[in-house]
Automatic annotation (TrEMBL):
Pathway: Protein modification; protein ubiquitination. It comes from Notechis scutatus (mainland tiger snake). The gene is LOC113424256. This is Ubiquitin-associated domain-containing protein 1. It is found in: Cytoplasm. InterPro entries: STI1_HS-bd, UBA, UBA-like_sf, UBA2_UBAC1, UBAC1, Ubiquitin-like_domsf, UBL_UBAC1.
Length: 202
């Protein structure tokens, strides 16, 4: 299989649709021992007409590669700035209401950076507390035992993608829908949700 750097480059190629229609098939044709530079060269040769020996063509290929890298970096930066701006605006708005900064940060943390929910939390009973979030489920509880004893969950926990999904959902709770719809991680998430709801009803 590809080494990590080659996988990252291949993913960028497909994501940017540089190798539009037959990108996946092209990636399968690439030999396992292909170096990253050779992979980039093949991609550019595959995507853009012209010979790599032609100096104009080589410059053109380099410009395309540089442009694609810039698009990826700019998109990530803009996305991060938008999230930070929204959180900063929410903190400022809640502090204008007279709440302490630490309380506001806790409220936003508990409510996944949702300003309205954080405001309701600050005005209400303040449950769950930030400390409750850090504790998680008690390992001795029936809920924890039921989740770990479930065969679907046991099988899913052997897949590294499941761990990635859980970590991503902790950092970005809004991504949970994406992981629920994923064919590999979805069944595990659904099973945990069913167990949780069943035990909470009893």
């Amino acid at each position: 299989m590809f080494v990590q750097e080659e996988k990252i480059f291949a993913a960028k190629v497909l994501r940017l649709r540089i190798c539009a229609l037959d990108g996946a098939e092209w990636l399968e044709e690439v030999a396992e021992d292909t170096a990253i530079e050779r992979l980039k060269e093949r991609c550019l040769k595959h995507c853009v007409p012209g010979s790599l020996e032609d100096p104009k063509s080589v410059t053109h290929h380099k410009l395309i590669h540089a442009a694609s890298e810039k698009v990826l970096n700019d998109t990530k930066t803009v996305s991060e700035e938008n999230i930070q701006d929204r959180v900063f605006q929410a903190v400022a708005a809640l502090m204008e209401m007279g709440f302490d900064e630490k309380e506001v940060v806790d409220a936003l943390r508990v409510n996944n950076n949702q300003q309205n929910a954080a405001c309701e939390w600050l005005l209400g009973e303040r449950k769950p507390t930030p400390e409750d979030l850090d504790k998680g489920i008690d390992p001795a509880s029936p809920l924890f035992q039921a989740i770990l004893e479930n065969p679907v969950v046991q099988l899913g926990l052997t897949n590294p993608k499941t761990l990635l999904a859980f970590e991503d959902m902790l950092e970005n709770p809004l991504n949970s829908t994406q992981w629920m719809n994923d064919p590999e991680t979805g069944p595990v998430m659904l099973q945990i949700s069913r167990i949780f709801q069943t035990l909470n009803r009893t």
